[in-house]
Write a structure and sequence with these properties.
leucine biosynthesis; two-stranded antiparallel ribbon; 12 strands; alpha/beta; Isopropylmalate Dehydrogenase; 3-isopropylmalate dehydrogenase activity; magnesium; binds magnesium ion; 20% strand; binds 3-isopropylmalic acid; amino-acid biosynthesis; binds nicotinamide-adenine-dinucleotide; ten-stranded mixed β-sheet; 11 helices
């Protein structure tokens, strides 16, 4: 039976363009010959906005919906007012395609540099809620720009939205050897949302007697990410806490250039979207300095999501082997890292 992948590609802004090219290079190299890869690139991001004023028109949203998956580089540019592309393009996609599981694995590969002493064994996954919290845009400003301005940004948490992501996290914890799930929130202060999260977490936990659970306030969690990251297996948390924690997780596992993510629509009704955790990095864009590994590992998540487990594992093994041989004293270009990984996965 012939197989095919119909992939939407949104390179986006800054280093997004550079790293996506390497992700596609490795994807083409890893796929067996009987898998037909079709890609369609979407011109979305800062350049498009400057040209037409559009972020994500309905026609493109509709077209994107019919792909098997989406590979995205990064969105955001200093020439565009902050939030225009982030909300109008990236978050619009996550919301429209109901990406309620924002999956962000963190693994410290052997020999990768970490700022942590003692080289702890880090291998956890953050299940970040992807469609609610303070990200919904439920806010406003009164008397804008005056000394009497009032601004709100309301965190929206629905029992439906919390339960489905918590359930997903329990399922993931249950399928991992350590079977441990940590809820991170701030229910000592956010007593409405925090208590709802905790109540739902405890309720769903009764269906998973083999999963060990614990709870941490988000501020304490940042301590343990640095002092005891090995204590974590699966973490479930809200949209904003998950955003912040996963940049920290990247920093302790070799840097933001290695951190991959998947915006998953578990029901399969909409395409899931895979992207590095990092942004468009305007400070290094166009210099060939960006590490494409995060995007390449995101391609591995994409392949696993579509059922190509062998190919996903080949990419992860290639990254592990490549990291073991990377010489910290010489810096490779974005293209050279992509080439090296493409050769490894093909070989
Ligand atoms: N998913 C996304 O598209 C996404 C994610 C985060 C930020 N952003 C946007 O990106 C823009 C820049 O944001 P920021 O500076 O806060 O975060 P950033 O992740 O772009 O950059 C933070 C730091 O990490 C470095 N860095 C990032 N990716 C790297 C890579 N692959 N290799 C080497 N170094 C890398 C950058 O050079 C910078 O010093 C903003 O417009 C922001 O909104 C988009
Ligand atoms: C750019 C921004 C909207 C985005 C987020 O906050 O989710 C980014 O920081 C990320 O981590 O993917
Ligand atoms: Mg972020």
């Amino acid at each position: 039976m012939s197989r095919s992948i119909n992939l939407a590609v949104i390179p986006g802004d800054g280093i997004g363009q550079e790293v996506v090219a390497q992700g596609l290079k490795v994807l083409s190299a890893v796929l067996p010959e009987d898998v037909k890869l079709e890609t369609k690139e979407y011109d979305l991001g800062a350049t498009r906005w400057h040209r037409t004023g559009e972020t994500l028109p309905d026609a493109e949203l509709e077209a994107l919906r019919h792909h098997d998956a989406i590979l995205l580089g990064a969105i955001g540019d200093p020439s565009v007012p902050s939030g225009v592309l982030e909300r109008g393009l990236l978050l619009k996609l996550r919301f429209a395609f109901d990406h309620y599981v924002n999956l962000r694995p963190s693994k410290l590969f052997p020999s990768t540099a970490t700022p942590l002493a003692g080289r702890p064994d880090i291998d956890f996954v953050v299940v970040r809620e992807g469609t609610e919290g303070p990200y919904t845009g439920n806010g406003g400003s009164l008397r804008t720009g005056t000394p009497a301005e009032v601004a709100t940004e309301v965190s929206v948490n629905t029992a439906y939205g919390v339960e489905r992501v918590v359930r997903d996290a329990y399922g993931r914890a249950n399928s991992r050897p350590r079977k441990k799930l940590t809820l991170v929130h701030k229910n000592n202060v956010l007593v409405y949302a925090g208590h709802m999260w905790k109540n739902i977490f405890d309720k769903v936990g009764q269906e998973y007697p083999e999963v060990t659970t614990d709870y941490l306030h988000v501020d304490a969690a940042t301590i343990f990410f640095v002092t005891q990251p090995e204590r974590f297996d699966v973490i479930v948390t809200d949209n904003l806490f998950g955003d912040i924690l996963t940049d920290l997780a990247a920093a302790v596992t070799g840097g933001i250039g290695l951190a991959a993510s998947g915006n998953i629509n578990p029901t399969g009704e909409f395409p899931s979207m895979f992207e590095p955790v990092h942004g468009s990095a305007p400070d290094i864009a166009g210099q060939g300095k960006a590490d494409p590994t995060a995007t390449i590992l995101s391609v591995a998540l994409l392949l696993r999501h579509l059922g190509y487990e062998t190919e996903a594992a080949r990419i992860e093994d290639a990254v592990a082997a490549d990291l073991a041989e990377r010489d910290g004293s010489t810096t490779r270009t974005t293209d050279e890292t992509g080439d090296a990984l493409a050769v490894r996965v093909a070989g």
